Amino acid sequence: MTKRMILMLAAVAAFLAIVSTIKLRQFKAAAAQAASFQPPPEAVTTVVAQQETWPHTMAAIGTMAAVQGVTVSADLPGIVSELSFDSGRAVQAGEVLVRLDSRQEQAQLAAAEAQRDLARLNLVRVQGLKEQGIVATAEFDRVAAEHKQAEARVGEIKATIERKSIRAPFAGILGIRQVNLGQYLNAGDPVVPLQSLDPIYVNFSVPQQEAVPLRVGGTVTVAAEGMPGTNLSGRITAINSVVDVATRNVQVQATLANRDGKLRPGMFVETQVGLGATTSVVALPASAISYAPYGNAVFVVGEVDGPNGQKYKGVKQQFVKLGPSRGDQVAVVSGLDAGAEVVSSGVFKLRNGAAVKVDNHVQPGNDPAPKPQDN
Question: How far apart are CA 234 and CA 79, in angstroms?
């Protein structure tokens, strides 16, 4: 009985050994197959990196400001008797916008003119008597002074009546009306904003270390995002003489023509300041850059050694240092040589050593000055 059990155990042990050997060989074969597995190539587009010469510029965020801009307000209190303007229209310097009720001043003017006429007659009469030696010089001086006071009183009332007519201090574009007919205005109450839009200022700040090459007369280009036709050029007209102690930035002001009035005060714009020099860069479409917190990179297409020793078309990841952008393009300052074939779209699905299939029938944008297209 014992001998039979020993034989049975030996048979079971032999069976387990045979099964283990077979499974081990299967596992090794599967591992070898997995190691030699090559995933299918990813479809990408490519572009050949070009060496280009870009003008040396500096980008900044600017705010438009009117060369002349005020909120027209009432000089004297009174009731609005006439409105002579519409919101949003252009006006000329000196054009009447609002008239306040001046009937009381007109009555005062009539009384003052009568008093002035009487004072003039008295002056003429006393002057004749003085020439005859009948009236003393002191009396003549008193009458002459009364005549001058009457004249001054008439001038004062006329000035008050004129101040009841609110005029545009300069030519420009009106804003939205803030008064109504019959409304009582106190001195200083707003009537309507008035802005002079041509020419117009753009104010922007640059870091103190980048302000050194800036000069009055330098070229500035302004563009408002989402507004075609607002790419305008101007000149730097003022550079602040002090540096902001809070931000260590220098305020710069440029003046540009704005004949169509598309740029308005307070508008956010992007500015490009020409520094008068050029920089040699490798230009790539922005879609070719793989942005990451640990560094920006591109994928260069070339021959890659496979795990089985065979070569295939794949990509190598190269970290690059980026410079300024221009339209659809980004400047690569270092890390990439001109002439390299770089993946221009599909970088999000690639890894170092991935196999690729190039299909350049449809290419991403690569225009240094793109123009928006209608849908």
Answer: 44
**Buried b / exposed e along 54-83 (16+ C-beta atoms within 10 A):** beebbebebebebbebbebbbbbebebeeb
What does the pLDDT read at residue 375?
44
Q: Kindly report, residue by residue over 205-238, the tens digit of the pLDDT.
A: 888 887 777 888 888 888 887 766 667 888 888 8
Domain 59-66+197-276: give its CATH superfamily: Efflux pump adaptor protein, beta barrel domain (2.40.30.170)
pLDDT at position 365 over 50? yes
Domain ranges of the chain: 42-54+279-358, 59-66+197-276, 80-100+165-188, 102-163
**Three-state secondary-structure class, residue 103:** helix
Cis, bond preceding 77 (omega within 30 deg of 0): no
pTM of the entire structure? 0.58
pLDDT digits 0-9 by tens, 324-355: 777 778 888 888 888 888 888 887 887 887 88
CB distance 342 to 298 below 8 Å: yes
Nearest C-alpha neighbor of 368 from the set 326, 336, 308, 333: 326
Please state which architecture CATH assigns to domain 42-54+279-358.
Answer: Beta Barrel (2.40)
Burial class (CB in 10 A: 0-12, 13-18, 19+), 88: exposed
pLDDT in tens, 269-293: 888 887 766 777 888 888 888 888 8
Structure tokens at 62: 């600017």
Q: Mean of the per-residue pLDDT values for the chain?
A: 81
Computed over its alpha carbons, how large is the radius of gyration of the chain?
A: 43
